[in-house]
Request: fold
Amino acid sequence: MEYRHLGKTGIQLSELSFGSWITFHTQADVKAAADMMSAVYDAGVNFFDNAESYAGGKSEEVMGAALKQLGWRRGSYLVSTKIYWGLNGGVNEHNTLNRKRLIEGINGSLERFQLDYVDLLYCHRSDKTTPIEETVWSMHNIIEWGKALYWGTSEWDAAEIVAAIEIAERHHLHKPVTEQPRYNLFERNRFSREYERVYKEYGYGATTFSPLSSGLLTGKYSQGIPADSRGALEGFDWLHDRLTDKGKLAKVQALEPIAKELNCTLSQLALAWCLKNPFVSTVITGASRVEQVHENMKAANVAPKLTPEILERVDGIFEVKKEEEDD
Ligand SMILES: NC(=O)c1ccc[n+]([C@@H]2O[C@H](COP(=O)([O-])OP(=O)(O)OC[C@H]3O[C@@H](n4cnc5c(N)ncnc54)[C@H](OP(=O)(O)O)[C@@H]3O)[C@@H](O)[C@H]2O)c1
Reply:
């Protein structure tokens, strides 16, 4: 496992990391979560991603209980959470990044985790109604109080990120240091086109999510939705169209000969492709069971095999013109 600086900060993250969306509480109890966390930690992972909204707060509870069981040195790993949607429907309690929500949010998360601080705190989406200045000041205060060490954004517009950085610089506040964007073979354009300027000019980090497009890139949806997959979970019907899209499945199938040549699985190839982007600080992986973890962690060994010629063939399948990636 290699470690990469989070943008231009001093902190280093394992190039593959591990997140709990959909899985913790819904598919994995504390024991299953601890087993998976232990497997990734043994492979060198030092960053665990979470959010207050995952499983209505239960995902943080499960991760916190697993961390307690595992008993690792606090200095040896990083934990994140994200605030925005909230857990309650009150007017100031959901879909906002106002000061009250952020401060109550971090306090609630720390309680559920049973931790004194999180390493990274994200604004899970942008809030078009709260002044960015109010959000920046609140995140700065949370860091000053020692409840988080760094802060970042998730799926903000590039212009909003730049505005937040500039407000922080103007007032000598803690700046946001990383974005958490979606990035995989199917969904790469925002990362490459919109955000690249923020990575290049501001040294912003990128902790990318959904590298397997919810499992579509593993190839397991080629014969329909397997009963033991995310696609079959109650309440996730909204994923069905994406997971059974014939055009997308044909592209996944076209990747198979390349995976075979490289002696790896489709999942490993798709994860390794994400790792090849130098602006990626870490690829946040997800898994519902330990076998997937073992398979996915080996992607780190596949990345060096992705030569420019292989990458061109992969891009050919996913129909992204070379110049779009280069400029
Ligand atoms: N900031 C945001 O808004 C945001 C949004 C989404 C995710 N995230 C973060 O990113 C993390 C990863 O996202 P994701 O879970 O969507 O990642 P993903 O890699 O796209 O999908 C992971 C899912 O694919 C299946 N899978 C993984 N490896 C497999 C393998 N080797 N073989 C077969 N199936 C496999 C598993 O689901 P099944 O076994 O159930 O099919 C697993 O839970 C999340 O946990 C979260 O921390 C952040």
